[in-house]
Specification:
Largest sheet: 7 strands, mixed
Number of strands: 7
Number of domains: 1
Strand order of the largest sheet: 2-3-4-1-5-6-7
CATH architecture: 3-Layer(aba) Sandwich
Bound molecules: guanosine-3'-monophosphate-5'-diphosphate, magnesium ion
Mean pLDDT: 86
CATH superfamily: P-loop containing nucleotide triphosphate hydrolases
Helix content: 25-40%
Low-confidence stretches: 1-5, 34-45
Order of helices and strands: EHEEEHEHEHHEH
Structural class: alpha/beta
CATH topology: Rossmann fold
CATH class: Alpha Beta
């Protein structure tokens, strides 16, 4: 094969998790806009969306994004939901304090079910409400927690779009870096 060979397109499974009504589906809709195919997976009851993004000039990856949908409560389904995930967005709601501690449980459950450590971003969503209701969750506490867990922390608004694209891009960058490391490691070993 010469230089003309077309590279196979990378694709990653990404999961979006967190307590109910924090805005997971809204974030996904905001990110995907109208360029989405919605396939409802009856078997496991999750929404599955696909989007190809250009994460660097001329570099594309396809994201298969799994939204846990209304199945948050059915813990026995979580294992198959997590299977094969290569990146995660872990969401809480900046307007409801309880969702911050619930989100921590989601992150630790994910860590117990996903075999390898996968790039994860903690998202505080509904930042558009802060001017109205004030900063009810201490940002430095969230940042400290995120750092301890090795995650980036980003505040988003699915409503006005703030930082939504950024969150997915940051996650993609981390996943491609991780993939690059895995590839070079396997080359060293062979
Ligand atoms: P979920 O998928 O995590 O369960 P949804 O959450 O995306 O269904 O959103 C739950 C509710 O929060 C929805 O309101 C939605 O409009 C609202 N929401 C989602 N993201 C934002 C945001 O960034 N800002 C604000 N202000 N609201 C948001 P309803 O009233 O339809 O239940
Ligand atoms: Mg939802």
């Amino acid at each position: 094969m010469g230089n003309n060979s077309t590279a196979t397109q990378l694709s990653f499974k990404v999961i979006i998790i967190g307590p109910g009504a924090v805005g997971k589906t809204s974030l996904l809709n905001r990110f995907i806009h109208n360029e989405f195919t919605l396939k409802y997976k009856l078997t496991i009851g999750v929404d599955f969306l696909t989007k190809t993004i250009e994460y660097a000039p001329e570099k594309f990856v396809k994201l298969h994004i799994w939204d846990i949908g209304g199945q948050e409560k059915f813990k026995f389904l979580h294992r198959s939901f997590y299977e094969g995930a290569f990146g995660a967005l872990v969401v809480f709601d900046l307007s409801r304090h309880q969702t911050f501690s619930n989100m921590k449980e989601w992150l630790s459950e994910m860590r117990s079910l996903v075999i390898n450590d996968i790039p994860s971003i903690i998202i505080g969503n509904k930042s558009d409400l802060i001017p109205e209701i004030g900063q009810i969750i201490d940002r430095s506490e969230v940042e400290e927690y995120a750092k301890k867990e090795g995650c980036l922390y980003i505040e988003t608004s699915a409503k006005n779009g703030d930082n939504v694209e950024k969150a997915f891009l940051e996650l993609t960058t981390r996943m491609t870096k991780k993939m690059g490391k895995l590839v070079s490691k396997s080359k060293e070993e062979s």
